[in-house]
Amino acid sequence: MVAAVQWEGEAGDRRNGGGGDFLDILNLRVARHWWAFAIRGALAIAFGVLALAWPLITLLTLVLIFAVYCIIDAVFSAVLAVRGARHGDRWGLLAFNAVLGLVAAGIALFYPGITLLVFAIMVGAWALLTGALAILAAFRLRHDHGRIWMIVGGAAAVVLGILVLTFPPVALFWIIWMIAIQAFVAGFALIFLGVAVSMLGPGFFQTAAR
């Protein structure tokens, strides 16, 4: 019994040591390749700048990605439908999904403007609905439980929904700004990480590992 407990303890020590060794190796690799993080951050910032400088190209790229996704989904649905038909399973919905995916991809490729317009309307309807629900839910709260802030947030969403439904391009440019902001945040974070690690140097992690 004592031997079994001792063996389990030694095994746990080996596992813990292995985990520590892995983290030490990972830290060393990060320190030695800090420049890769900095370059990735710079590229992310450049992507954000390009998204704001050429918004139309950014939107068309999103439409192209959506079309590719629809085609891939349609292919997989068609394969599953054929396999289901061979085995006597239900395949009608899968086949319909494949056809629908190809139609959506065709519309996105040949009529990108319609795709962007429909997407903008969906965003506007979503903002309007969620804002109205937030306002309704706010009146179920007590005054000291943040009712006013929920009302403010819901009202802002309603205003955004009305603006988007009235002027659909607002939603499209809002999406571009969200993409650019995310790229800026990620880019600066990676650059700061690279600079901070480079200031420590690999020797710091080697010393800490000992």
Provide key terms for this protein.
210 residues; extended
Give a verbal description of the structure.
With 210 residues, the protein is mainly alpha-helical. The chain has one domain (13-62, 112-209). Helix content is 90%, strand content 0%. It has helices at residues 2-32, 34-53, 55-86, 92-110, 112-138, 147-166, 169-200, 202-209. Helix 1 (2-32) packs antiparallel against helix 8 and helix 5 (112-138) runs antiparallel to helix 6. The longest helix is centred in the middle third of the chain and has 32 residues, at 55-86. The protein is extended. The two termini are 34 Å apart. Residues 1-19 have low confidence and may be disordered.
Distance between the termini: 34 Å
Number of domains: 1
**Helix percentage range:** over 70%
Task: Give the overall average pLDDT.
Answer: 76
SSE class = mainly alpha
Which regions contain 5 or more consecutive residues with pLDDT less than 50? 1-19
Number of strands: 0
Supply the number of helical segments: 8
**Largest sheet properties:** none
Beta-strand content bin: under 5%
Concise overview:
This protein has eight helices and no strands.
Give the topology.
Blueprint: H1 2-32, H2 34-53, H3 55-86, H4 92-110, H5 112-138, H6 147-166, H7 169-200, H8 202-209
Helix pairs in contact: 1-8, 2-3, 2-7, 3-4, 4-5, 5-6, 5-7
